[in-house]
Amino acid sequence: MKKFNRVLSLLLVASLVFIAACGNNDKNGGSTSSGGGESIYFLNFKPEIATVYEQIAKDYEAETGVKVKVVTAAAGTYETRLKSEMAKSEAPTIFQINGPIGYNAWKDYTLDLKDTKLYSYLSDPSLAVTDGDGVYGIPYVVEGYGIIYNNAIMENYFALPNKATGVSSMEEVNNFDTLKAVVEDMQANADALGIKGVFASTSLSAGEQWRWQTHLANIPLFYEFNDIGGYDSTVLAGLEADEIKFTYGNNFKNIFDLYINNSTVKPTLLGSKSVADSMAEFALGQAAMVQNGNWAWNQIAEVGGNVVNQEDIKFLPIYTGVAGEETQGLAIGTENYLAINSKASEAKQQASVAFLEWLFSSDKGKAYVTNDLGFIAPFNTFTDEEKPADPLAAEVMEWMNKDTTAVAWTFAAFPSEDFKNDFGDALLEYAQGSKTWEEVSAVVVESWKNEKAK
């Protein structure tokens, strides 16, 4: 029966593509300028998977005859690029929004998707971005992030005869104090462990700060908004917050200091480091740990000279010293919502929806999603056998099944990209020694207030 349903779904998708294509091709098979044809333009958010999307586009065109143009924004520039592209006559037909905040900025350009099969595929329809009865953003991946570690190096540390801690396995590392003791002792034994530093470099160059001003910043603000009663989620509490106190700012400082002071490079050099530099250091065995998400597997695996065995790649929650954090899990959620341009022609809208339905329901599309994109897709079209097998995705799924509490992706409530960039710039100045932590905290509080007032 399942096989029959898949076949029926593919036939329906194919019919949509055929209907969208009819009447829009000239006698040579090319798109006509009148009516805009059925071509699709996808503006991609994630540079690290751009090549995969480009191959998907080629395969889809070969299978259906529908051309998919993939353009990828540089890291940290998506909103700026989206504004620029939307102003063009050939604007993106598929784009991404960052949850409720992104929807508020782009609501005039988002098509209602409540009647699409794509929406019906969601395992949990409440994950979608909605407004009244309309559905305007479809989440396409559940992801998790934390501290990635190389278990082979950790086992070498635990076997050191002269180690200064009594910790003998990663199972014992379940709070910040234990993590700090292990990390600082590892740094003291870096030569014996064959590493340059415990943590890969903290990327603080322009456009490369998102792991800290967004993902790490999520931890203290999750706890701050979690302390506020009367809301169903920390995101909703954050959206209503005109001001923040940065109550858990010192907890952020705890882990950030641990990163930059036990690293492959000195803190003063971090302004020139990129995410790619950081991931290469980890892949080459120069570092034992690095903060990132399950999407980083492709980056690790593709580094020339990679020495990290797949079975040795593990996840640890980001501990910061918050009371009760022994039961804290990974940060799990999504900021990735697909939207269709409501200003595009109806034919382009239909073709765009059909492409996404193919990607998340056809055997070929799902194989790309699972094996190449590495997505943990929130759709009921995927069987257990079609879920990602890469080590980091497997770790996320394992942590989701543990008796721990995941940290919600509260950064969906952050007021703007400017707030994040203000935070990141202040962190760079702190690492370089030109700002005190008190000054960093003041920037965070003031920038939130100013951005909310706009």
Distance between the termini: 54 Å
Number of helical segments with 4 or more residues: 19
Largest sheet: 6 strands, mixed
**Judging from the principal axes of the Cα atoms, what is the shape?**
globular
Q: Structural class, from secondary structure content?
A: alpha/beta
Number of strands: 12
What report would you give on this structure?
This protein has 454 residues and is an alpha/beta fold. The chain is 44% helix and 13% strand. The chain has 19 helices and 12 strands. Strands 6, 7, 8, 9, 10 and 12 form a 6-stranded mixed β-sheet that branches. Strands 3-11-5-4 form a 4-stranded antiparallel β-sheet. Strands 1-2 form a two-stranded parallel sheet. Strand 4 and strand 5 form a beta hairpin. Helix 1 runs antiparallel to helix 15. The chain starts with a helix and ends with a helix. Residues 1-36 have low confidence and may be disordered.
